[in-house]
Design brief:
mainly alpha; five-stranded parallel sheet; three-stranded antiparallel sheet; 49 helices; about 5% strand
């Protein structure tokens, strides 16, 4: 005989009170901290059923009692592909309750990004069905960084109104975009009035192990690991749960041993004992032992065995629908009336096995229910035959579509449904993918698109779906993306369509290891287009293909051998209007810059003038290369253009654009001698390269170029060990060999070793046709090392070649360096002085501040050696000022030594005034001086207002001012 289930204790209060004093004390302190202005984070980690969710419930109650607004979310297995699903659970209430005026206070960047993530139909969602492959969406998707930043500002704004507590249960099943946002939030949490408490199950990752580990190991977290209950606590737990006295110690010990002190398993054992009216004496201890560690699964089996057919169908429907399912939906899915469903709830065990959703008693909306623990839901779900589960998920998709119309929630069920060749299902999956892509979650978009292709779709939809899938996977798995593009290329029919797909394949090759096949595909597409009379659009596409072929050639040896013969035709092909012609101009300009053609800069300027290319994932390579050419030519307009492009990239939040722009701009800062800024941009670019590499991509250009820039920066700052670590990575010799040779020179390695490395760089550069000394600097370290090794004639021969190549290119920096090299090898002291005077003259007024300081340092040293001590001191003091402003420590030390040798006393580095500001402080000061509020400064620099306040306090102290209105004058000096 079985007892009526009746109300069964949730054990929330009991579990907290039983051997959880330490956890409760920590939560008491940390959860209430945001009320006092301190952001905190607590992670509750442990095995399933150990009481993490109970402690989380305790934390929520403590937060409410302390006056915090509590926002909750629970991740589930069903919704791991629902992009920002956990974030939406957490933050949708903020958007829903914010007044229109409050929303409008967010600037243009964060507001739409946050709204796009938190609404079912983001305003920026691209309509991929209506645009050509590779075309820029009319309404660009929200980039990954833009989404993260917009959500951060939504939380920061809400916290300004009142402190918040974010409570996230079952982090191990959290969708990857939500995990990325939590990783973005955690380092900034201390500056916000926000608390975060999350639970995570030990040993589970839900398919995002690396990302979960990044979040779970963040130093912002205080980690609590609840231990199993001891025998005494287990006996007390049973007494409370069974509401009876007289539990014999042997029976209690058997329960403890069978469950290893796990509160959830103890709870299920107690429920079974109660339902079966089992005596709690030693004679019945063996019943408990039989349950063992699989108590939940076995007890669920027994529960299902005793249910009637309707209640069994209802239990399965609840398991399929997932947490907080509307009772009406579960009834419909089970094929029963709602009144019958209420009786089924009692039969299953309400609230012992199933309970109402936490907000179900608020009086609004339909009644929603959930299983009391994910382990119980998983056990019920696993007991449903696979074919039945698949059918239930397809039926659930129809129910969710009728109730919400949210394509992502619908698609979450279609992922578990068996393929059925349903065009409507394909369309729903495509829309879900569009939404995921639009909020910066391409990996989730790829899951939906892959499932749409399995349905399968109508034949006419296969190529568009394959292209969308390739675009979604391009930064996640390049091999898979290339495979999808090749399949699309095989299925495509017309030459124009095939050409567009080939262009996408070529663009992928510029960011990863390209292959001969990519070049062959492009060749075939160009040939087919040349036979096609497609009008202006086909002609412009042909030019875009030609540009992509050049980009592919830059990233590999494929197609480089016949480039010199092709260039006249490509230059002529670019003499037209249209985006394809401008992309080709960018590519031709870069190729011409590599060979040292002085008109390359004019072509780059033309590419960026008139109707410039719109910034997008598909044009960023062209734009970055054109701006790189302008930097090589030391065009003063290059850096403002890069700044504008960086601002645009940050608004878009695109990792690919940010990586490209920060890498090129790092070289610009390096040329200008702003080493701290160069290091900051280079590290940003390196972080992006590492993200690509962790995804299995081989970055043939981005990684080595940014490592070279960072390595050179560190060498100039005197951080040689760190430079060595950065430059130790694999990469093309012509990209990394030059900085390695300069590192050897700075370390004082044997001249023969330096010369060998530098000469190898020269050989590799010549093989690739890279002749411009502004692009690959190898002759200077080679000649200096050869001279030190006693091979002065060979060194002078290289110096002459450097001088001739630098003069042909014409930019001041390589000319100034070549003159310094000639001076170092000059047989007569007077000749050296004259060459150095000419070097200083050439470099005066140029962007190349550090080259100018180095030339003055050499000139001052030479003047002192020639007996012109007073002139030497004057020149050296100017060199020291510049070296210190640039933070070029080795150069500054060399100049100080030269000044001391010349009888002068070098002054100490500036500790106050504008020169004392760090690059970050200077950016904040300039924005604030221009009238930007702390809030606007913070949003532009992707920091918090509190960080801006800290910067401003330091700025005021260094500038000797007390008010914001004094900033502009103080910065002018």
């Amino acid at each position: 005989m079985s007892a009526e289930p009746g109300p069964f204790p949730s054990s929330a209060e009991d579990a907290v009170l039983l051997e959880r004093d330490h956890e409760a004390a920590v939560l008491d302190a940390r959860v209430t901290a945001p009320a006092h202005g301190e952001g905190t984070a607590v992670l509750l980690e442990g095995v399933a059923g150990i009481g993490k969710s109970t402690l989380l419930a305790y934390a929520r109650e403590r937060g409410r009692a302390a006056g915090l607004r509590v926002l909750s979310a629970r991740a589930t297995e069903l919704e791991t592909s629902f992009a920002f699903g956990v974030v939406r659970q957490l933050l949708e209430p903020l958007l829903a309750t914010a007044a229109a005026g409050q929303r409008s206070e967010l600037p243009a960047g964060p507001a739409p990004a946050a709204a796009a993530v938190l609404t079912s139909e983001p305003s920026g969602a691209p309509d991929s069905a209506d645009r050509e492959p590779g075309a820029t969406p009319a309404r660009p998707a929200v980039g990954d960084f833009a989404a993260l930043n917009g959500l951060l500002w939504l939380v920061a704004d809400a916290a300004e109104e009142g402190p918040l507590l974010l409570a996230v249960d079952d982090l191990h099943w959290c969708d990857p975009p939500s995990l990325r946002w939590l990783a973005f939030l955690l380092p900034r949490l201390a500056e916000l009035r926000v608390g975060l408490v999350a639970t995570v199950r030990s040993g589970e990752s839900g398919g995002s192990r690396a990302l979960l580990n990044q979040v779970a190991t963040d130093p912002a977290f205080t980690v609590l690991r609840p231990r199993p209950l001891g025998p005494g606590a287990a006996e007390e737990f049973l007494a409370r749960a069974l509401a009876r006295d007289g539990i014999e110690p042997a029976f209690a010990r058997a329960c403890h041993d069978a469950t290893a002190g796990n509160p959830l398993l103890l709870r299920e054992v107690a429920r079974a004992v109660r339902e079966q009216e089992l005596p709690t004496d030693a004679a019945h201890a063996g019943y408990v032992v039989d349950l063992g560690p699989h108590a939940v699964a076995r007890l669920v089996e027994r529960l299902l065995d005793r249910l009637g057919p309707r209640a069994r169908r209802f239990a399965a429907a609840l398991a399929v629908l997932g947490d907080d399912a509307p009772l009406a939906d579960a009834a419909a899915l089970a094929g029963i009336e709602q009144g019958v469903a209420l009786r089924c709830l009692d039969e299953i065990g309400h609230p012992g096995t199933v309970r109402d959703a936490e907000d179900a008693g608020d009086g609004y909306g339909p009644r929603r229910v959930r299983y009391v623990h994910p382990l119980i839901r998983a056990a019920v779900y696993g007991a449903v035959p696979a074919a039945d589960r698949a059918g239930l998920h397809r039926a659930a998709a129809r129910l969710v579509e009728a109730r919400t119309g949210d394509p992502t929630r619908i698609a979450a069920h279609l992922l578990h449904a068996a393929p059925a060749g349903d065009p409507h299902a394909v369309e729903l999956l495509r829309r879900a993918a569009e939404r995921s892509a639009a909020v910066g979650a391409p990996a989730e978009a790829a899951v939906f698109l892959g499932r749409a292709l399995e349905e399968p779709p109508p034949e006419s939809d296969r190529v568009p779906l394959l292209l969308a899938l390739a675009e979604a996977t391009i930064t996640q798995d390049i091999a898979a993306a290339a495979g999808h593009l090749r399949t699309a290329l095989r299925l495509a029919t017309g030459p124009v369509e095939r050409a567009r797909i080939a262009a996408l394949l070529g663009e992928a090759a510029t960011y990863v290891q390209p292959t001969d096949q990519a070049m062959a595909d492009l060749e075939q597409a160009v040939t087919a287009l040349e036979r096609e009379e497609g009008g202006v659009r086909a002609e412009d596409l042909r030019r875009r293909l030609a540009a992509t072929m050049l980009f592919t050639a830059f990233a590999s040896r494929s197609g480089r051998g016949d480039l010199p013969a092709r260039m006249p035709h490509l230059r002529e092909l670019a003499e037209h209007e249209g985006p394809g012609a401008r992309m080709l101009d960018c590519a031709v300009a870069y190729q011409d810059a590599m060979t040292g053609r002085p008109d390359a800069a004019d072509r780059a300027r033309r590419a960026l003038s008139g109707e410039p290319l719109e910034t997008s994932e598909h044009t960023v390579t062209a734009l970055a290369l054109a701006l790189a050419v302008l930097l090589l030519a030391e065009d003063p307009g290059a850096m403002p253009r890069l700044d504008a492009l960086m601002a645009d990239a940050r608004r878009r939040g695109s990792l690919r654009i940010l990586a490209s722009v920060s890498t090129v701009r790092a070289r610009g800062w390096l040329l200008a001698g702003q080493l701290a800024e160069a290091e900051s941009d280079a590290r940003d670019g390196l972080d992006a390269a590492r993200i690509y590499e962790r995804a299995g991509l081989r970055t043939t250009v981005l990684g080595p170029v940014v490592r070279a820039a960072l390595g050179d920066t560190l060498i100039l700052r005197g951080e040689l060990d760190e430079a060595g670590r950065v430059l130790a990575a694999e990469g093309p010799v012509h990209l990394l060999g030059g900085p390695r040779a300069r590192l050897r020179l700075a370390r004082g390695d044997a001249p023969a070793l330096v010369a060998r490395e530098a000469l190898e760089v020269g050989r590799a550069a010549r093989e690739l046709g890279v002749l411009n000394p502004a692009m690959v600097q190898w002759r200077v370290p080679a000649a200096l090392a050869l001279h030190a090794d006693g091979r002065t004639e060979q060194a002078r021969e290289l110096a002459g070649e450097e001088w001739a190549a630098a003069r042909a290119w014409g930019a001041p920096a390589p000319v100034g360096r070549a003159l310094r090299l000639l001076a170092a090898l000059a047989p007569q002291r007077a000749d050296a002085v004259e060459l150095l005077r000419e070097s200083v003259t050439v470099l005066d007024g140029s962007m190349a501040r550090l080259d100018r300081a180095a030339a003055r340092a050499d000139l001052g040293t030479a003047l002192h050696a020639a007996g012109f001590t007073a002139d030497a001191r004057s020149v050296l003091r100017i060199a020291l000022d510049t070296a210190e402003q640039c933070d070029a420590r080795p150069l500054a030390e060399r100049v100080r030594a030269a000044l001391r040798a010349a009888g002068a006393r070098p002054r100490r580095a500036a500790l106050s005034g504008p020169a004392a500001l760090t690059p970050s402080e200077l950016r904040v000061a300039e924005l604030a001086a221009a009238g930007a509020t702390n809030r606007v400064v913070a949003q532009q620099l992707f920091v918090t207002p509190k960080t801006v306040e800290v910067h401003l306090s330091r700025i005021y102290r260094k500038l000797g001012i007390t008010a914001r209105t004094q900033l502009a004058a103080a910065l002018r000096g």
